Amino acid sequence: MDLGLLLNGFVEILVPYNIMITFFGVLMGMLFGALPGINASMGVALLLPLTYGMTPIAGLTMLLGIYCGAIYGGSITAILINTPGTTAAACTTFDGHKLAQQGKAGKALGMATISSYIGGTFSVIVLIVLAPVLAKVALKFGPPEYFALAVFGLSIITSLAGDSFIKAIMSGVFGLMVATVGMDMMNGTPRYTFDQIALLDGFSFIPVLIGLFAVSQVLINVETSRSLSMKDTKIQGMLPSLSEMKSVGPTIARSSVIGTLVGILPGAGATIASFICYNEGKRWSKHPEEFGNGSLEGVAAPEAGNNAATGGAMVPLLSLGIPGSETTAILLGAFMIQGISPGPLLFRDNIHVAYGIFAGLLLANLAFLIIGLFGVKLFVKILQIPERLLMPLIVSMAFVGSFAVKNSLFNVGIMMAFGLIGYFMRKLKFPITPVVLALVLGPMAEASLRRALILSGGSWMIFVQRPITFVLLIITVISVMFPIIREKMTGKKANSI
Amino acid sequence: MAEKIATGIFFVIGLIWLVMSFSLASNNFGGGMGLGPDFFPRMLSIMMIIFSTVHFFKLMKSPKEEEIKIKIYRLSAYIFAACVAYLVLVSLLGYIITTFLYISLTVYLISRKKSLMDLVAALVATLCLYGVFHLLLHVPLPEGFFI
After folding, report:
1. With bands split at pLDDT 50, 70 and 90, how would you rate the model's confidence at A494?
2. For the segment A215-228, what is each residue's pLDDT rounded down to a tens digit?
3. How large is the ipTM?
4. Three-state SS for A182?
5. Considering CB atoms only, which of B10, B72, B125 is closest to A389?
6. Which one of A27, A43, B123, B145 has the lowest number of neighbouring Cβ atoms within 10 Å?
7. Domain extents in chain B
8. Do A222 and B75 touch (CB under 8 A)?
9. How far apart are CA A311 and CA A121, in angstroms?
10. Average pLDDT of the residues of chain A
11. How far apart (Å, rounded) are the C-alpha atoms in residues A380 and A362?
12. pLDDT band per the 50, 70, 90 thresholds, residue A140
């Protein structure tokens, strides 16, 4: 950690425009997080086009603000109407809504806000300490190591597989194939462009993404009507007392550490972190019997955990350039659009951007603390926006976002096509996340593979001879095999019962 | 049935990618070392063909109850059709008019109620979009013959 550089980062982020942008991002994130049916990934994808004209630090901080805000925002609807706005807030309903039913909605919201802030900030500090060190190690990486990293990143697909392993792989391979469209990056041959000039640069990342996440979700959302009514909930007395803070202190501390570690692991994100933290919170608590009946610890544990996962997830993204989850995959795309490639080179060539982002993340966490504590009543009013208006608004934003990439309606068409593809994939339970991971990591995997083989004169032994590459590939094999073995084991168990 | 069709489509995509990979060069810059642009897509297409075939036979063997049935709602189809109309009309009518029409049509499709308030809301939403994107952030918007 370099305090001078961090200070410099604060100087860059703490100008009125950037502060405003960060607060806007966090507020939008909270909105996307709190409203059920739309989530952080969609928010980042939809609002990405807003950042085209911004400086990298402002644009990326806004997007990271959306991410942090969304993970926190999920708790608001979880507490008030027992519907988690994001899956990461599912555990918060257990005790949070119980507290609201007991008339202590304010207390629950306050606890969720403060523990989210502590968890999130702790994880950013870990990020600031850890990422530069990891990046320094990764600076020695050559093409073979990058290939191994990309393959490792892709292997996360198997751990993200919902009910079917093979369907997740098919989704992933489909994404990789989509990524091959366009001019070959090594010798310029057009591939799979079907003689369309517009496809020479390949499918633009943004329209594909917006189609898969926003348009398809809108088509699914309109099929079921949801209403958010929270008129009768009174919100008051948000700040916890000193004795309450003392009693939940250890829980928040524990969740912050666990959440950060889980976040760093690729494939496990905020949702898994919140579940683990809730369980651990109950296990270590002096009053485990209160869990599920409106325990403040039961709110603090998952909320500190899921926000701690946000900073953790940034560690592999910023230092190695591999995304560990859906949202971080989209963020990786956002970095590339800003002309900045996350990974060791970020810390060598754009170190001021890296530290600007660190400072921005700290500010983003502060932003949701402030909005959460002082503006939640107003925020709840915004949440009442009727769905019949929200859905066309989302599509309109998607429309502008896809158009603005290259000023072309062709990209809007691409967006709609992928909206339809995403709709059917969701319906048929083909997971979408592998497609996004593949779109980001596919080109990296192919380029580094081919560069590595040029380096070795065509010999594949290069991947075994270099220790880091070899170890990474072994880890990849293990992480791919693990779910298969687990599936076989649990399958057998299920049969024997 | 729907899942079998989807798996079949994945298989066909794999097949197209495989066939087309043979018309790509197999080396860099006329005979250099390493792999050409054909290698990666060919590997992927082979993987796709294998996985979709395996999945297809798995679906054939599995009992009928486990089949994923999909119901496509008429509303989703209408909403999507409205999006297509939006795309087609925007270069004719211009951004503001088309967006207003699109939002008010979709609001009506979802609520099935004719409400003046919704029309006002659609107008405000359109102007907000135009204001934020075009006037504030200078994001380019599609242009038509009108505004």
Report:
1. very low
2. 998 998 888 766 66
3. 0.92
4. strand
5. B125
6. B145
7. 2-66, 74-136
8. yes
9. 8
10. 87
11. 24
12. confident
Q: Could you tell me the two tokens for B122?
A: 């659609």
Which residue, among B80, B84, B113, B128, would best test binding to A if mutated, counting the most A CBs under 10 Å from its CB? B80
A231 within domain boundaries: no
Q: Is residue A435 part of a domain?
A: yes
The band of B17, judged by pLDDT with boundaries at 50, 70 and 90, is: very high
Q: In chain B, whose CA is at the least distance from the CA of A176?
A: B44
Q: What is the CA radius of gyration of chain A?
A: 22
The CA distance from A208 to A416, in Å, is 8
The residue segments making up the domain with residue A296 are 3-226+237-496
Overall number of domains in chain A? 1
| Residue A201 resides in a domain | yes
Check CB contact of A461 with chain B, cutoff 8 Å. Answer: no
Does A384 have pLDDT greater than 50? yes
Task: Report yes or no: B15 and B45 within 8 Å, Cβ to Cβ.
Answer: yes
Q: Looking at the domain assignment, is residue A171 inside a domain?
A: yes
Nearest beta carbon to residue A170 from set B25, B55, B129: B55
Shortest Cα–Cα distance, B9 to chain A (Å) = 11
The pLDDT-based confidence of A181 (bands split at 50, 70, 90) is very high
Cα B24 from Cα B26, distance rounded (Å): 6
